[in-house]
Design a protein that fits this description.
The protein is of the alpha/beta class. The protein is 28% helix and 24% strand. The protein has a single domain, classed as Purple Acid Phosphatase, chain A, domain 2, CATH 3.60.21. The structure holds fe (ii) ion.
Length: 262
């Protein structure tokens, strides 16, 4: 009997621990400095929602978003795990309160579904999908070029064509895409900041699994902020899960980025 109780306690504690690792969203606050910033701008970046049946978790994310102050809202792709959850996505986007400057890109998994339908869901909720497109924004007297590039890991990117007619001098240039491969595929000379997701921070961040995933997907930048020669890359661990419905040692993340002058 005692053994049974011990086993049940271990199972319960393991469940609780995995639940914390999978659903305890961390708000990752980062600062990026840029000479062209006149007044501080706050960006909320979320990615890899991978919506499934778990509406309770989706509501939790929504409540977090609606309690954060930001100027720009960015979505990094991979929105659903099955087409039946488009309805959850629509409901979720509809309930986000601040969508004054809201933009999104497609992730590799989105291309499995009806892209037109995903695009429609975003546009009817006042969020513009930038699929190899740019937006020129003026926010708090700052000139910001936001460049949204299709998922580069499956060759949906077309950076050069996207920026061909865009003047990238004397402005803050932010590139939004799903995967960091874009920094290896293109010379992003004039880009200041690249925001991506895709890696889930390995999702199951344990040594053996981490090494397998690292080799399989050639993951060089897995999570966090990387200061490279001329740009800053931030890899967001994302919010959802793929294949296995849990995370270990890679908590879900909302990135709250503050762009400031030095
Ligand atoms: Fe993903």
């Amino acid at each position: 009997m005692l053994y049974l109780i011990i086993i049940l306690v271990i199972i319960y504690l393991s469940y609780k621990l995995i639940d914390i690792h999978t659903h305890d969203v961390e708000i990752n606050r980062q600062s990026v400095y840029n000479d062209y910033i006149k007044n501080e701008i706050k960006i909320l970046h979320l990615t890899d929602l991978h919506f499934d049946f778990n509406k309770k978790y989706q509501t939790k994310i929504l409540n977090l978003i609606n309690n954060i102050e930001y100027d720009i809202l960015l979505f990094g792709g991979d929105y659903i795990n099955h087409k039946q959850y488009m309805i959850n996505l629509n409901e979720f986007l509809r309930k986000i309160e601040n969508k004054k400057h809201a933009f999104a890109v497609f992730g590799n998994h989105d291309y499995q579904y009806n892209l037109k339908k995903i695009n429609k869901i975003f546009s009817q909720n006042n969020i513009k999908i930038l699929n190899n497109e740019y937006a020129q924004l003026v926010i708090k007297k700052n000139e910001v070029n936001l460049i949204g590039i299709g998922s580069p890991d499956i060759d949906k990117d077309d950076y050069n064509k996207t920026v061909k007619n865009l003047d990238l001098t004397n402005s803050i240039n932010i590139l939004l895409s799903h995967c960091y491969y874009i920094i290896e595929k293109e010379n992003l000379n004039q880009i200041n900041l690249v925001l991506v997701g895709d890696t889930h921070g390995y999702q199951i961040n344990l040594p053996i699994i981490r090494n397998i995933l690292k080799t399989k997907f050639d993951l060089k930048y897995t999570a966090g902020k990387y200061i490279l020669n001329h740009l800053i890359l931030i890899v967001n661990r994302g919010l959802g899960t793929i294949k296995l419905p849990f995370r270990i040692n890679s908590k879900p993340e909302l990135l709250l980025l503050s762009l400031e002058n030095k």
